[in-house]
Amino acid sequence: MTDTRPLRVGIVGAGPAGIYAADALMKSDVPVSIDLFERMPAPFGLIRYGVAPDHPRIKGIITALHKVLDKPQVRLFGNVDYGTDIDLEILRRFYDAVIFSTGADTDRVLPIPGIDLDGCFGAADFVSWYDGHPDVPRSWPLTAEKVAVLGVGNVALDVARILAKTADELLPTEIPPNVHTGLRANRAVEVHVFGRRGPAQAKFTPLELRELDHSPTIEVIVDPADIDYDAGSEDARRNSKQIDMVCNTLEQWAIRDAGARPHKLFLHFFESPTEILGDNGAVVGLRTERTELDGTGNTKSIGVFQDWDIQAIYRAVGYRSRDVPLLPFDPVTGTVPNEAGRILVDDCAAGQANRYLSATYVTGWIKRGPVGLIGHTKGDANETVACLLDDAAGFTPAAEPQPAAITRWLADQGIPFTTWAGWYRLDAYERALGAPQDRERVKVVERHEMLAASEP
Q1: Closest by CA position to 45, among listed 99, 123, 103, 84
Q2: Given a cut of 60, is residue 99 above it in pLDDT?
Q3: Collapsing DSSP states into helix, strand and coil, what is residue 120?
Q4: Cβ–Cβ under 8 Å, residues 286 and 276
Q5: What is the pLDDT of residue 347?
Q6: Which end of the chain is more exposed for a tag (fewer CB within 10 A), N or C?
Q7: What is the CA radius of gyration of the chain?
Q8: Which domains are seen in the chain, by residue range?
């Protein structure tokens, strides 16, 4: 770069990872001009469409992200889908560098027999439904009385909690009318959460776990036989306050007397799902194999199987990123191959420098995989942006770097994009929908309604 204009950076994805990258760019000593592209009409990604509606504490992160998007160096182009509306070649016309922060919104595969039976669902799809994502069906089958959730992370707890709560408990939140109607028809009275390892290996955060017990309608039940530790587990407890708090909570629940709350939520450990049982193409049960600790914190199978009476199953074994058009993709890790955010074009011979895709970077879950909490993406962004700024002197300048150029191009293509000012209008519209019911907001689901509410 030789001219004195601001460095033009396009960011694909306006969730926390993309917004943190914009923030890191603005905090550098390099003048920047940043445009964020988001396929949804509204920003905030995972926080809007991946956080359970009864977790307003986590949604409070939006307040900090708002301050970033309020900065004059940043613009938002919503309702613009990378791979459909724009591609990398087009972006390189208008930007000196491009950062991809496309996240992870699909489910990891669980390769066990019966996984394709009717009544077996991915947690990511269910989360999208109850969070009012515009691109998923408006209804959800909730006819099962006994439900299993496979996985012991925070998403598994969210799914289990939403399935176990009553619709009226969730009505004060931002859930849209179709979700409230669907949850009123929910017949689940037993929810079973299964983990193949022990309490010390669970991926819950302590606060998320304790929140299960706050509902007046949910009785959380832990079998005392599932409270077991080996040397590796004890080391993990000593080295992590969070793990120790999770174990303490589970121990307390295991020794208490069962209460009379109408919905039962069972947390099972040392049960590895081996097969989903079906009849006439539909789920009728789950088969698990008992495991035991091997001394290192890992488990081994012991050849004891149990069949559980279950009519619906949700796999919450991790999110997975989608393949990003025109970028290399590792189908095993579900990430774009990279070093510190620089995208690797291919593997080079020993002793040779790695080849990187010029002026193109990744951050967030598409960079490192769907692990960690939302705040962890800030460190990812800082690392990626540091690499981008180190490389900036060697960038080929964008052919059309003027900020108005991309706006004209989108208009010429007939792409109905939303803006940051449009988000303020949509935000006000959703709050107005909630006001008559003394709710903070009612989330709008239909894309056309979001677009209309975003217009001046």
Answers
A1: 103
A2: yes
A3: strand
A4: yes
A5: 53
A6: C
A7: 24
A8: 7-105+321-418 (3.40.50.720), 106-319 (3.50.50.60)
Q: How confident is the model at residue 424 (pLDDT cuts 50, 70, 90)?
A: very high
Strands 271-279 and 282-293: antiparallel
What b-and-e string marks burial along 147-161, b requiring 16 or more CB atoms within 10 Å of the CB?
bbbbbbbbbbbbbbb
Beta-strand (E) ranges in 56-182?
A: 74-78, 97-100, 106-107, 120-122, 146-150
Distance, in Å, from the CA atom of 129 to the CA atom of 260, rounded to the nearest integer, reads 30
Copy the structure tokens of residue 344.
């690797």
Q: For 429-455, what is each residue's pLDDT tens digit?
A: 999 999 999 999 999 999 999 999 999
- Rounded to the nearest 10 degrees, the angle between the axes of helix 420-434 and helix 447-454 is 110
Sequence-separated (6 or more) residues with CB below 8 Å from residue 436: none
Note whether 164 and 188 are within 8 A (CB): yes
Angle CA 215–173–263, to nearest 5: 25
- Copy the structure tokens of residue 246: 């999770």
What value, to the nearest 5°, has the Cα angle with vertex 130 and ends 128 and 134? Answer: 50
192 three-class SS: strand
Phi, psi of 178 (to 5 degrees): -65, -30
pLDDT digits (tens, 9 = 90+) for 36-71: 999 999 999 999 999 999 987 776 788 899 999 999
Identify the helix (H) or strand (E) that includes residue 425.
helix 420-434
Question: How far, in Å, CA of 279 to CA of 77, rounded?
Answer: 48
User: Which positions ≥6 away from 424 have C-beta within 8 Å?
Assistant: none
Q: Are strands 74-78 and 32-38 parallel, antiparallel or unpaired?
A: parallel
Sign of the dihedral defined by the CA atoms of residues 441, 447, 452, 456, in that order: positive
Residue with tokens 């926080």: 47
Element (H, E) at 362: strand 355-362
